[in-house]
Every structure is written in C-alpha cells, then in structure tokens.
Amino acid sequence: MNRRRFLGIGAAAVGAGALGAFAVPAAARLLTEGQPGLLLSSAVELPEAFQVPLPLPPVLRPVRSDGSTDYYEITQQVARLEILPGLRTESWTYGGSYPGPTLAVRAGRETVVRHRNELPVPSVVHLHGGHTPADSDGYPIDLILPTASGGSGDAKGHAAMAGMAGMAGRAGMEGMEGMEGMEHGAALALARTTNGDRTYTYPGRQRAATLWYHDHRMGFTGPGIWRGLSGFHLVHDDEEDALPLPRGDRDLPLMLADRAFAEDGSLRYPAIDPAALTVPGVTDEYMNGVLGDVLLVNGAPWPRLDVDRARYRLRLLNASNARLYRLELDPQPAGGDALVQIGGDGGLLEAPVAHDAVEIAPAERFDLVVDFSRYPPGTSVRLMNRLGSERTAEVMRFDVSSRPVQDDSAVPERLAAFERLDPAAAATTRTFGFRRSRNDGWTINGRPYVPGRALARPALGTTEIWRFFTDLHHPVHLHLDHFQVLSRNRREPGPYDAGWKDTVDLRPTEAVEVLVRFTDYPGAYMLHCHNLEHEDMAMMADFVVE
User: Fold this and answer.
1) pLDDT score for 437
2) Which of 152 and 92 is assigned the larger pLDDT?
3) CA separation (Å) from 464 to 23, 167, 319, 375, 458?
C-alpha cells in the first residue's frame, strides 16, 4: 500500500457510524480487536518457553537522605545484556540493567533523581503517572545531551533539534503544517536543554501507586523504550501499608514487553533512522505500531517462577510499544475469578474487582492478587495472552510448590478511601479526536504535534470533562493528574476502567469521557497516544495549566 492511500484510511472515521469508511482489506486488518500494529519477526531461533527464571529488577538505594528528601543517581548507559540465552544484546539502559532499577519511595517525601546521560543520543525522562511540576515532567524537547563519553553532546543536541524542526519530512508527515516553519533556533529557545545530566524533582504529593519512568524524547520514544529505557517507580503510603496485602517476596513488579531480535541477538526495529538521532518514525508498513514475536517479563523471555501456595501481588505494567494483551491464567482455578484487581494506574481501588481475564493496553498498570493456594501442589499455571498467537500467546509460567507455608495475607472488602469527582462541578467539556489525517499522519483534533502549541488551557484547581474519540485503536495518556472514566460510548465505564487512571484504552471508533481535576502545578503538560509509533509520528498535544 502506498503512503498516501495508507494515510487516507480512516480520514473521515468519527464515531460508531464511521466503520463504513474503512473499505479496503488493509483497513479492516487495522480494526482487529487486539492487534493495533504489525508483527516484526525475529531472525534468530527463539528459545523454548519457561526455561529462564523470572528476574526482579534491583531496588535502587538513595545516595543520601535528609529529613524530607531522598536523593538518587542513575546513569543512562549502553550495556550488552543476555536477554536471549547465549546471546548478547546491545541495549540502552538505566544503570546497566533492563528494566532499570526500581525506585521504591514514600508518599509525602520528596524524591530527587539525577540522571546522567552516557548514551549516544539525547534523552528525556518522564515519570509516567507522576504528579510532577512541569519542569520535571519530561517535556519531550527538554533534552539531556550526552556526556563526552556518550558522544559529542553539542553536535548531537543540535542534530536532534534539527530533526525536530524537520518533522515535516518524517514518514507520513508530508505537508505537516507549522513544523516546516519551525526554525532550529526557535526549537532551541523553547527547550530546557542540559548538558550531560539533569535533576528531576518529584514532590511525592500522591497516593501509593505503581508508576514507571521511561524515555520521552520527541520523535524517538519508541526506539528509546524498545532499546531498554524503562523502569519501575513504586510509591508506598501508610494507607496501603495498613492493609494485609501480600508483601515482600510475594509482591512482584512485572514489566511486560515484546521485542524482535536479529540473528546475532541485536534488537530489530524498523526505524527510518537506525541511529535514532535526526529522522523520527518507522517505515510505512509499521506506522500503526511495532509488535515483536518475543514476549519478555522483566527482560526475560517467557520466564518461569516457583510460587508458594499463597497469595501473590502482581503489579502488571504493559511496557510494549503497541501490543495489547488479554491476560488469563491457564488453568483457571475452580470457581474462576482468578485475577482480583486491587489497583490500577493511580493506586488502590475503593474495593477489589474479580476478573477471569484483564485487558491491558500500552502504559496501563493492573495491580492484581492471585491466590495460588487454589491450585493443587505441583500445578503449572501459565499466564496466557488471549490476543496473541503461536509464541505470543504465552507470557510466563508459575510453578506451584508443594512445601507447606504460612500466608497471613488477605484482600479486604474495602481497600482505600476514594474521592469521586462530580461531573456537575466540571467547568467545561473539551473534545479531542485521535485520528489519522489524510495529509498530516497521526493527529489530535486534526493537528500534528508542534511544541508550544496548546490545545487546551485549563485553570488550576478546576475540574473538566475531557472527551476522547478515535478512528483506530489508541491508548490515551494524560500527564500531571489522574482521571476517572465517566462513560464509554455514552454508557457505563468498562470492566477495566475502575479507579484513578492516567491511560485509557480506546478501541476503534469509540468515545470515552473522563473527569480530571488540575491540581498543584501550573505549566505545559502533554496529552498523547501511548502507541509509541503513533506518539513519535506526532499524535501528541500540549495543554497548559494556568
């Protein structure tokens, strides 16, 4: 399919009646329920499943602490990691590991993280789900230029800015209004760029939740995360600590990702610019997202874990570029309801919700409790992806031990206090259309991203209703504040919409309304699709809290 025809698909698709606009067979494939992208196959022979033990990311210790603040240091660096057994994969990492080290912090305490960039490219760090001042939120052109050890920082910074200014030349961005006229100097003036390192300050004014940090560089988030730039940031508080939930070795952060590998073990990714420096985007056929054929959990392919006959807390994060998962245990325990959801993007739910399966879109988090005492000793329980096929249908395996153990954990009927936002108090309603434009590629409200151009200016302290609608499949992420899902297609929220969220999954031709209250911090923030290939190809927008 040529680029013009591809971009034209769905240009008129708005609302439930738009399905008729998708007439060509390729468009029908893009509307399939679980596969928003295209599979990129590995060239190497893939290992058998369930041979590698599940690794857990190291927990980073602060370099120092005082009465109010914990201070951390992370070096972004190239590392050669053994991801597939017997092969080394060059990766971009936080601290030399994938995932990067976990930050475990306390609500109410300030966290200060100094990132040093020894990569061959500029970087930006976003704390996903963080309630963060604008200058530490990871605005996509607030670059950390490489140190001398990572390469010529000034040269690469100027090259990166030139690439931003030339976004009109990216795949599918012909005729992109505004960016063609964006001068190199104007981009430099807007950006808060640092040389070698940058300090991010997170005040900790939020409840316990499973957050994650990742690269957020304009036009290159997809290759940055694909090559390894992501890690957990876990917030704990007194309310959560008072509950008898599983803890210690039975509280497991699980980062799900898919990748593709070359014959020598290196990562395959269909970037237009393999150096990920000057030309954003992927080749035409992967514009709707890149799917790998190797499923990783905490950086290991199809791992296994020995578990006690006890309850475990599974903090699931979908860190894939584009892949959607429908996760289910096989076999199901007698009576079903194997996955008890206790939390989501923004922390604990008011009350637990039992599921047989959960659907998790890119960037979403699900906090689940699984009771393995419901299985006979010696049972092997697979975590399945019902939206996958062949090798991508299996995720990992839990092997239930026969040894006697004590388990004093429980899932209370009430988990946490929950403030419900009142839609009657909304100051206004705004509408944002996530669509592919005939001329401009992936857009919000018909506009590709231009730094500094705000699509909304909400007032600090106000509540608003934001309505999102789509042509194809888009996971929508909002920075600064978590929101509550008000409706789907003017009906009740879906089964996976409970609690506070920062990312909501929209299926093709779907409309979702959310309630959001803008608190604490003024400044410029982001709204964007978290299909990373869509994001890199301009499906982002600024909003400014005033």
Assistant:
1) 85
2) 92
3) 36, 32, 29, 46, 8
